[in-house]
Amino acid sequence: MKEKKILICDDDHGILEMLEMVLEEDGYQVVVEAKSINALNRIAEESPDLILLDIWMPVITGDQILSQLRADHTKSNIPVLMYSASTDGKLIAEKYGANGFIAKPFDLEDLLHKVSGLLI
Predict the structure, then answer these.
(1) pLDDT, tens digit (0-9, with 9 covering 90-100), for 37-82
(2) Which domain covers residue 51, as residue numbers?
(3) pLDDT bracket for residue 120 (50, 70, 90)
(4) How many domains does the chain divide into?
(5) Secondary structure of the chain in the HEC alphabet?
(6) In the beta sheet, which residues pair with residue 5?
(7) Which CATH number characterizes residue 12's domain?
């Protein structure tokens, strides 16, 4: 079976490292992108099976990235799990068409459960 590829976009290097470690331990191939401005190009290059996307990032926010993804018919079907510490993060994720949302700080078991559910 092909190893599933997950692209994580977050400007916080600590969160990127933690998510990369946890997801690789769970058997996923992980690609990280710290600069939101590069996210759409990386998604095009990597063709991930799932995208983990922080909502609040400098330059381009996660909801702006998701809006552009959903408008591009070649990428609109990629599942996106958004996350944020913001109290309105879930509403933002739903409004822009995310496939799921998880609040920070993460419950890692919940995160892994949502990731595996989106990759079925």
Answers:
(1) 999 999 999 999 999 999 999 999 999 999 999 999 999 999 999 9
(2) 5-118
(3) confident
(4) 1
(5) CCCCEEEEECCCHHHHHHHHHHHHHCCCEEEEECCHHHHHHHHHHHCCCEEEEECCCCCCCHHHHHHHHHHCCCCCCCCEEEEECCCCHHHHHHHCCCCEEEECCCCHHHHHHHHHHHCC
(6) 29
(7) 3.40.50.2300
